[in-house]
Amino acid sequence: MSGHSKWSNIKRQKESTDKAKSKIFGKLASLITLAVIGGGGVTNPDHNVKLRLALEKAKQDNMPKDNIDRALQKGSGPQKINLTEIRYEGYSHDGVALYMIATTDNSNRTAAEVKNVLERHGAKMASPGAVSYLFEHRGVVCLAKSENKEADVLAMAEKIQASDIEVTDEQYIVYFPFSMLGKLTGEDFKLTFKSSPESTYKPVSTIAISEGRMREKLDQLITALVDLDDVHEVYVNAQG
C-alpha cells in the first residue's frame, strides 16, 4: 500500500451550478460521441466497452437522457461529427510532469488553448513522448471504507492483480491492469464501488510538493486546464 496522493488522479471538481453542469455535460457528451466513433458507429453499450464506461459516467453525473441521445447521434447518425482524442504533454513551473487528454473537433484550436493556459501559469508544452513514459495506463476503482471490509478489498485486489492500493481516511483506491477495465464489477466480489471502474494514468514515481505557493500555483494551473471545454483529464506526477 502507498500513501494517498492528492494529485494521483485529478478529476473534475465543480460546484453544482447550472453553468458547471453544462460544462461537465459537454465533456461527457464528447466522450460518448468519441466512444461511438472509435467503436465503428456501434451505439449498443453491450458491444462497445468504451461507450458503456462513458454512459455509466454520464449517468453517475445525472446527465439528461436527451443530451445522451444527441451525443450518440453525433457519433453515428446524420449529425455525425469529426471528433478525435489528442494527448498533450508538458511541465509545470516546478518541473512536475503534465499529461493532458482532450477531445476535439479542431486540434489547432485546442493545442493553442492548452499552450496559452500553460504559458500563463509559468508552464510549458513538451514534445510527444517527453512525459507519457512517466505514467502507466491503469484501471482504477474507489471503495468507501464505511461500506466495505478491508479483507474483502485486499482479496479482490489480489485476484485482479492490482498494482497498488492507496488508502485515505474514507476510502480505498485500487489500481489494476487496464485490460480488466470493463470486466470488473462489485457484484463479482460482493463489494460496493463508489463509482464504476474507469481508466487512469498513474505516475510511475512522484515529485513531492510542499504546502505553500508552489502547491497553490499547481492547483491553479490544473484548474485552468480542466476548465477548458476540450480538456477532460489532467494527470500530474506530484504528491503532497
From TrEMBL:
GO terms for cellular component: cytoplasm. Belongs to the TACO1 family. It comes from Candidatus Roizmanbacteria bacterium RIFCSPLOWO2_01_FULL_41_22. Residues 84-238 form the TACO1/YebC-like second and third domain. GO terms for biological process: regulation of DNA-templated transcription. GO terms for molecular function: DNA binding. InterPro entries: Integrase-like_N, TACO1_YebC-like_2nd/3rd_dom, TACO1_YebC_N, Transcrip_reg_TACO1-like, Transcrip_reg_TACO1-like_dom3, YebC-like. This is Probable transcriptional regulatory protein A2966_02815. It holds the Pfam family TACO1_YebC_N. Residues 5-77 form the TACO1/YebC-like N-terminal domain. Keywords: Cytoplasm, DNA-binding, Transcription, Transcription regulation. It is found in: Cytoplasm. Its main location: cytoplasm.
